[in-house]
Design goal:
By secondary structure, the protein is mainly alpha-helical. The protein contains seven helices and two strands; from the N terminus they run αββαααααα. It has a two-stranded antiparallel ribbon with strand order 1-2. α1 packs parallel to α3, α2 packs across α5 (108-136) and α2 (46-59) packs across α6 (142-165). The model has no long low-confidence stretch (mean pLDDT 84).
Length: 204
């Protein structure tokens, strides 16, 4: 039983960290899906809330907060590594290698916006999850996901867009990004809400 619990904790932690890394890389590209504009990271980022909720359920709030902070540090190190590789001289014998830096070298505002928004919103999500859990106990488990995401998703979206794109993109584009982000994140949240019942509570 303990081995199964440990495996679930590792899967949820690794899934959470991997999804944040992939999402931040995806955020470097703004997509146009029909009438919606959204950063590519939005396609995956909402699933981080599901992983964090499952982690919280199996390991508790303290471990969840630790994984959130660890993920922020790893994302920062990833961007630093990309920047270092991009500015180091390329081997001329293999021809021009300009696309690496052009594609993967993000602006500092995007890096800060991504990490700050993710960390703040996820920590808030964790606290709300804990409060709802304490109030309802093991009943109405879906409310933990609903209420925590209801607050954390808008906070995450606003912080990221303001820091990363405020003053760069027009108000119209920012509004379209905000609406698209909320729409997709809430849809994914609602669809994945039932996953909270896949594992049983081990911690408060």
């Amino acid at each position: 039983m303990q081995d199964k619990r440990l495996k679930l904790i590792i899967i949820a932690s690794a899934g959470y960290i991997a999804l944040t890394l992939f999402s931040n890389l995806g955020s470097l590209r703004i997509l146009a899906l029909g009438v919606l504009s959204l950063d590519g990271g939005t396609l995956l980022y909402p699933f981080t809330f599901t992983c964090r909720d499952l982690l919280h359920k199996k390991a508790g709030g303290e471990i969840s907060r630790f994984v959130i902070i660890l993920s922020a540090i790893l994302n920062l190190l990833m961007f630093i590594f990309i920047m270092i590789v991009a500015v180091l001289p390329a081997d001329p014998s293999v021809g021009p290698q300009l696309t690496y830096g052009q594609v993967l070298l993000p602006g500092i505002r995007l890096v800060i916006g991504s990490i700050v928004a993710m960390t703040i919103s996820e920590l808030i999500d964790t606290e709300i999850y804990s409060l709802v859990h304490k109030h309802y106990g093991n009943s109405h488990q879906w409310l933990r996901v609903f209420y925590s995401n209801l607050v954390s998703i808008p906070i995450d979206t606003v912080i990221f867009l303001v820091i990363a794109f405020g003053g760069i993109l027009s108000a119209t584009v920012l509004l379209k990004l905000f609406v698209a982000n909320l729409l997709i994140k809430f849809i994914v949240s609602l669809v994945s809400m039932g996953s909270i019942y896949l594992v049983k509570d081990d911690q408060v």
